[in-house]
Automatic annotation (TrEMBL):
<feature type="transmembrane region" description="Helical">
    <location>
        <begin position="163"/>
        <end position="182"/>
    </location>
</feature>
<feature type="transmembrane region" description="Helical">
    <location>
        <begin position="81"/>
        <end position="103"/>
    </location>
</feature>
<dbReference type="Pfam" id="PF07690">
    <property type="entry name" value="MFS_1"/>
</dbReference>
<dbReference type="InterPro" id="IPR005829">
    <property type="entry name" value="Sugar_transporter_CS"/>
</dbReference>
<feature type="transmembrane region" description="Helical">
    <location>
        <begin position="325"/>
        <end position="347"/>
    </location>
</feature>
<dbReference type="InterPro" id="IPR036259">
    <property type="entry name" value="MFS_trans_sf"/>
</dbReference>
<keyword id="KW-0812">Transmembrane</keyword>
<feature type="transmembrane region" description="Helical">
    <location>
        <begin position="294"/>
        <end position="313"/>
    </location>
</feature>
<feature type="transmembrane region" description="Helical">
    <location>
        <begin position="393"/>
        <end position="414"/>
    </location>
</feature>
<feature type="transmembrane region" description="Helical">
    <location>
        <begin position="263"/>
        <end position="288"/>
    </location>
</feature>
<dbReference type="InterPro" id="IPR020846">
    <property type="entry name" value="MFS_dom"/>
</dbReference>
<dbReference type="InterPro" id="IPR011701">
    <property type="entry name" value="MFS"/>
</dbReference>
<feature type="transmembrane region" description="Helical">
    <location>
        <begin position="139"/>
        <end position="157"/>
    </location>
</feature>
<feature type="transmembrane region" description="Helical">
    <location>
        <begin position="48"/>
        <end position="69"/>
    </location>
</feature>
<keyword id="KW-1133">Transmembrane helix</keyword>
<feature type="transmembrane region" description="Helical">
    <location>
        <begin position="225"/>
        <end position="242"/>
    </location>
</feature>
<feature type="transmembrane region" description="Helical">
    <location>
        <begin position="353"/>
        <end position="372"/>
    </location>
</feature>
Amino acid sequence: MVLTEKSRKWFVGTLLLGTFTMSISQSSLSTAYPTFMRYFNLPASTIAWLTTGFMLIMSVVMPLSPWLMDNFKFKPLYLTLLINFVVGTLIVIFAPNFLIMMVGRLMEGFSVGVLFPSYQSIILEITPQDERGTVMGTVGLVMGSALAVGPIVSGVILQVMSWQAIFGFFLVILSAVFLLALKTVVSPLKLKTTHFDFISVFMSLGIIGLLYFINEISHMTVTSYVNWGILIVSVILLYLFVRRQLKMPTPLLRLDILKIGNFDLGVALTSLSYMSLITITIVMPLYYQQVLGLSPFWSGMALVPAAAFLSWLNRRSGRLADRIGFKPVIAIGFGLFIIGWGGLLLLSGLRNIWVGIICTMIVEAGNAFAMMPATTLGANSLTNDLIPHGSSIIATFRQIMGSTAIVLATVILGNGNFNAVFATFLVMEIAALGLAFMIKDTTAQRSAYATQR
């Protein structure tokens, strides 16, 4: 299907508005944990499952995205995901207890998990390759800004309303997106009916077990036999999943594309960038509260300059990548990460809020130059028919590494060892900069892979 420039902009705009709103739901609840603890009379470890469970279900359904896009028209798929999210949100709002609320959150997570790789695949496939950097810069604006804005939105709402209003906010916007999607969203791709591999889906449940283990590390001991057992079973399932995907003629997920040089670098660099972004949005509010003595509201508001700077830079970094190439832009991004984390490490002892705000802005600026350009780099190394598989792989790895970053930062932080967190992520991004210099010509990589196939 050929789209006019106007219809393509409306189509992409609708996708991004819906995704932005759903993305906010991923990070918005951390500010509201104390409120939920009082409302349900539950400890923080239990309330945290509102976010952990959401991320677990997201991760396990991401590999299903390529199959869904091959076998269902995109418009009804997108509308179904919106409806599922809205129903889940209604369940959360009217939940009589925490268990029912969790059901609603898992429904929301399912929609987000399928949508994240799907909408990126669609946008990449309908965008000419020489314009992808700019368009994916806008996608990065949506993803990065939503992650940073989530705690701010919930913090502001909780100042004047109940926690249900946070979900009411999602409900109103997504209802409007649904009506808009009826007019603007189309199904631009041809269907390719394929067999649904239940065995692969079962094996992919190892992702849930792995993420569960990662999230429980900080609470475990050597004698936590159940958790160690979950890890062993999960690793076995994931090994079998990978082996099955590499041997099947029509796999659920084309893991063989990780052999493409630039694609595997795109996966790694996107993940490393996301790890810094999600860590800075979690660690800095704690720093502002525990070290500088700010209230939760003002600790959230202190993230606004960085979120605004990230939003402003994303499209500009994408346009720059289209103009001068992805390698120098990505290298700039990881250079900014190094400056930001290094600044926090060297200057945090000053206990000055402006030092924290400026360094956070530099870290999030690094994300603008690194994450979506790296994602686009990976996509450009693939043929169009492989882009859904590539988007799903990148999204799944990014989610797993994001969860790992949260646990890593939490364990290292302990009772307030912020400098150790800053030093850890500084070293990690120095290593990432080395990977950025290994990027090769995308066209050559894609042609070489096509010849091999």
